[in-house]
Amino acid sequence: MLGELNDQQIENLLNTQITGRIACSNDGVPYIVPINYYYDGEKIIAHSVAGKKISIMRKNPVVCFQVDEIKSIFNWQSVIAWGRFEEISDMEEKGNCMEALKTRIQPFSEPRPDHTSHGLATRAEDLGLLLQLIFYKIILVMKSGRFENS
């Protein structure tokens, strides 16, 4: 059976997953990449180093975010959300984002010898010193979801 997810099912999927995909475009050329994220009920919070994705989103902040849960080829859920990229520059907000991401992602990561989790510092004081991370949010303006189950 194919169907549409209701609002609560959309929120549940966004809250329970940790990896999604951001689609952005530059001069009509689409670009899509996976990211680890934290969802706070209104926006997607994520981090990156400088690169193609950040460069494109700085030029064109209109993005699309997709997340799914696939149990089998005939048993899955998927959400697509549209929104706007905003880079976070406030150091206190960056520290809060780092802690939220670390709390959300760390249970799914393997321990690393440098004591970081997926590029996240162990202390907020290390932001901008040891790590050149860019924290950003995707302010969601519209969401849609689909599912299939047998």
Q: Keywords for this structure?
A:
3 helices, Pnp Oxidase, Chain A, eight-stranded antiparallel sheet, 22% helix
How many independent structural domains? Answer: 1
For this structure, the CATH topology is Pnp Oxidase, Chain A
Determine the strand fraction and express it as a percent band: 35-45%
Low-pLDDT segments: none
Describe the structure.
This protein is α+β, with helices and mostly antiparallel strands. The protein has one domain (2-148): Electron Transport, Fmn-binding Protein, Chain A (Pnp Oxidase, Chain A). It is 22% helix and 44% strand. The protein has helices at residues 7-16, 52-59, 91-105, and strands at residues 2-4, 19-26, 29-36, 38-39, 43-48, 62-72, 75-87, 134-148. Strands 1, 2, 3, 4, 5, 6, 7 and 8 form an 8-stranded antiparallel sheet that branches. The mean pLDDT is 88.
List the helices and strands and how they pair.
Blueprint: E1 2-4, H1 7-16, E2 19-26, E3 29-36, E4 38-39, E5 43-48, H2 52-59, E6 62-72, E7 75-87, H3 91-105, E8 134-148
Antiparallel strand pairs: 1-8, 2-3, 2-6, 4-5, 5-8, 6-7, 7-8
Q: What's this entry about, in short?
A:
By secondary structure, this protein is α+β, with helices and mostly antiparallel strands. Helices cover 22% and strands 44% of the residues.
